[in-house]
Design brief:
Distance between the termini: 32 Å
Order of helices and strands: HHHHHHHHHHHHHHHHHHHH
Radius of gyration: 23 Å
Oligomer: single chain
Number of strands: 0
GO molecular function: transferase activity
Protein name: Ubiquitin-protein transferase
Organism: Aureococcus anophagefferens (Harmful bloom alga)
Number of helices: 20
Keywords: Transferase
InterPro entries: ARM-like, ARM-type_fold, Armadillo
Strand content: under 5%
Length: 385
């Protein structure tokens, strides 16, 4: 979204479903590559899950009375008919009849019941992992939410932060939160506080999973306010500098969303030391995706915020951004150029950018902006040479 000439801000809306896996793709994507030992362990896990589902179903039936599945309602919110995703790749309209098979609907309801039950932890972990996997599919998202999974998954996020229950619960919420209505339902179910706790005290994978869920929830303005109020900014900043590559990237994207069109949130990020961390990450991040995410977050932080702009100059952002304009990925270069133009809207920053480009101290914004564009053009020329 661009406003006022070269002033630009951008919300991170590329919320691909597969990003909820720390291993690349869904947990089921590695079929055919398991060792015999792992396969035996997997089969044992599913055997335990089957026993647990039968016991959980029996205990839940005795508590709730006998009701047909058609009339049974476990709670949670209905998801809309056409879940969202990246706006540049819209999905075709859903047919009136759900393509989810009845046998799968039954399994989903059983998994949800097991997550809410007092069954042993390994069985609950297996059920949560299945919901995480199924939540990668838009059609299954609807069925999962309709089965009342959101409160059950939030409950799992309150489990000990070192265990898999909390991690898998957060990853399932991460995928479900791609949908706009689910973002609201997840926050209303009380997910923000336990997710912030997981980011603070959880294992490496728990922290990444919780940050992913926060990232998607933060697209919603009301959720942004709650995330900031619950202390979510500082653990995200810490994850950018102390987490692994996957955790750092998703934390930067969460900050990117929090900084969107909110002076209050931008100030909170500056106070938490986000700018210095993001500048370093833009230069030395462990992957192209990390550096892109950091540049995007800085771009939103610079929108109509002179304090943030001056802090970026103080933290050495200008030479880093100039280098990105030449050597970065296409998306990184777009962010870096837009960010430099935003800096040019502040007089002291304008002079600093002019000095980096070896222009006169009294150069106009238009002249320095043109130098930035020239740098981008030079990259395009070099790439095609």
């Amino acid at each position: 979204m661009a406003r006022e000439g070269s002033e630009a801000e951008m919300k991170d809306v590329t919320l691909e479903e597969g990003e909820a896996s720390s291993e690349g793709g869904s947990p089921a994507s590695k079929k055919g590559k398991r060792s015999p030992k792992k396969e035996k362990k997997r089969q044992s896990s599913f055997k335990m899950l089957s026993v647990g589902l039968k016991q959980a179903s029996s205990s839940m039936s005795s508590l709730m009375g006998k009701r047909s599945p058609k009339n049974k309602k476990d709670g949670g919110d209905e998801s809309p008919r056409s879940p969202g995703g990246a706006p540049k790749s819209p999905k075709p309209p859903r047919s009136p009849k759900s393509p989810v098979r009845e046998v799968d609907l039954k399994k989903i309801r059983e998994y949800v019941m097991l997550c809410k039950s007092d069954q042993p932890v390994p069985r609950k972990e297996a059920a949560a992992r299945e919901l995480w996997t199924l939540a990668l599919n838009n059609d299954y998202k609807v069925a999962i939410v309709s089965a009342g999974a959101i409160p059950a998954l939030v409950l799992l996020c309150r489990q000990p932060p070192s265990g898999k229950c909390a991690e898998y619960g957060a990853r399932a919420l991460w995928n479900l939160a791609i949908n706009a209505e689910n973002k609201v339902a997840i926050a209303e179910a009380g997910a923000v506080r336990p997710l912030v706790t997981l980011m603070t005290n959880g294992s490496v994978h728990c922290r990444e999973a919780a940050a992913g869920a926060i990232r998607n929830l933060a697209v919603n303005e009301k959720n942004q306010e709650e995330i900031v109020a619950e202390g979510g900014v500082r653990p995200l900043v810490e994850l950018c500098s102390a987490g692994d590559v996957a955790g750092a990237e998703v934390a930067a994207r969460a900050l990117w969303n929090l900084a969107y069109n909110s002076k209050k949130n931008q100030s909170k990020l500056v106070e938490a030391g986000a700018i210095g961390v993001l500048v370093t990450m833009s230069k030395d991040g462990g992957s192209d995706a990390c550096r892109e995410a950091a540049a995007g977050a800085l771009r939103n932080l610079s929108y109509e915020n002179d304090d943030a702009r001056l802090d970026m100059v103080k933290n050495g952002a200008i030479p880093v951004l100039a280098e990105i304009c030449v050597e970065g990925t296409e998306m990184s270069r777009i962010h870096a150029a837009a960010l430099l133009k935003n800096l040019n809207s502040q007089p002291d920053c304008l002079r600093a950018v002019a000095a980096e480009f070896q222009l006169p101290d009294d150069s106009s914004k238009a002249a320095v902006d043109a130098a930035v564009e020239s740098l981008l053009s030079r990259h395009a020329t070099d790439s095609t040479a």
